[in-house]
Amino acid sequence: MPANQAIEQTDLVEAATAWLRKRLPPSWTIQRSSRPGLVDSALEIQATGVYATLAIEARRSFGPRDVERLLGSVGRTLRDYNPNLRILVVAPWLSARSQAMLANEGFNYLDLTGNALLRLDNPAVFVHTQGSAADPSPRPRGKSRVRGPKAGRLIRLLVDVRPPYGVSAIAATTGLAPGYVSQLLAALDDDALIERSARGAVESTDIEGLLRRWSDTYDVFKGNDTRTFIAPRGAADAIAHLPSSAAVTGSFAAARLAPVAAPALLCAYVEDPDLAASSLDLLPSAQGANVALLAPFDPVVWDRTSRADGVTYAAPSQVVVDCLTGNGRMPAEGEAAMEWLLANEDSWRAPALSDVHP
């Protein structure tokens, strides 16, 4: 190991030790101990009559893919050696997805911004704190960011259509540049949101992870040109008289998938909000609105719509992300719709890219 890397990892372990000492009972002792095997260091936490050993895996950077590597190497070896041994991952910063993946696999974690999860049985310890949601010292990256209309269009395809498919086929279907598709797939691969073959083709996708990643940088009302109105005869009447080109999303669309409560706000994508409002006799209103008409952020909102009882509805994946990023009870409706989405994949997901029209 290079000397400078060893020094940085030592600093990480010392910082983690100091952080833990401030949060555990003052009568307990926390001290470095000899390495238990393949990890960088270890901490021994002692309370009255009991002690626990934390195997420390210190990294200068740690991402979602590193969780899989940890499971396949150090974690498996240590768990085989001692099933009761607990592992603590320490890094300068851990993304929300890295934290969730570590927690799901039973690992403890701590970053220097204060994102931490420590779970021990004996002595009994549970510490869970939140630090920075963004990397305070991001490294320059050549990969595309998962943000904006083009990213949304690509994520919609990855969610709506079963793999496998390659860069060229994705680009031809979405109308995106192959170079952009390749760069964004690399970013999603880094975050373990997709799995790729040796030649770069997408082989599997994390539906929920992709939609939640998109929802981190998207807002249904801010990301679209939104106008709000009052329908004098109510939202239920307005939905029945929407133009055929409109696509309903939000609460009314989510209620078809997984009802939470009677929907109150009608959200619909329309080509021209002012023209649609005039045809529906809607009254502009910033307060107490029961209709929101959205000029879409991207034409992808018209892709893979469905029609029922004379009304066109946005694709389930679009409905989920719109609800998750909405207001009021929309996020709860989005969570319910997400559960439906994951449990009923065969009813809404295209079986192959050949079934999707460019």
Give me a quick take on this structure.
By secondary structure, this protein is of the alpha+beta class. The chain is built from 14 helices and 16 strands.
Secondary structure blueprint with pairings:
Elements lengths: L2 H21 L5 E5 L7 E7 L2 E9 L5 H9 L1 H8 L4 E6 L4 H9 L3 E4 L4 E5 L4 E5 L19 H12 L6 H8 L3 H13 L3 E3 L5 E4 L1 H9 L9 E6 L4 H6 L6 E3 H8 L8 E4 L3 H7 L3 E2 L6 E5 L10 E3 L2 E3 L2 H9 L5 H14 L1 H4 L10
Parallel strand pairs: 3-4, 4-5, 12-14
Antiparallel strand pairs: 1-2, 2-3, 5-6, 6-7, 8-9, 10-13, 10-14, 11-12, 15-16
Helix pairs in contact: 2-3, 2-4, 5-8, 6-7, 8-12, 10-12, 10-13, 12-13
Question: Your description of this structure?
Answer:
The protein is of the alpha+beta class. It folds into 3 domains: 3-129, Trna Endonuclease, Chain: A, domain 1 (3-Layer(aba) Sandwich), CATH 3.40.1350; 149-217, Arc Repressor Mutant, subunit A (Orthogonal Bundle); 225-341, no CATH class. Helix content is 38%, strand content 21%. The chain is built from 14 helices and 16 strands. It has helices at residues 3-23, 64-72, 74-81, 96-104, 149-160, 167-174, 178-190, 207-215, 235-240, 250-257, 273-279, 316-324, 330-343, 345-348, and strands spanning 29-33, 41-47, 50-58, 86-91, 108-111, 116-120, 125-129, 194-196, 202-205, 225-230, 247-249, 266-269, 283-284, 291-295, 306-308, 311-313. Strands 1-2-3-4-5-6-7 form a 7-stranded mixed beta sheet, with helices on both faces. Strand 2 and strand 3 (50-58) form a beta hairpin. It starts with a helix and ends in a 10-residue tail after the last helix. Mean pLDDT is 88; it is low at 1-7.
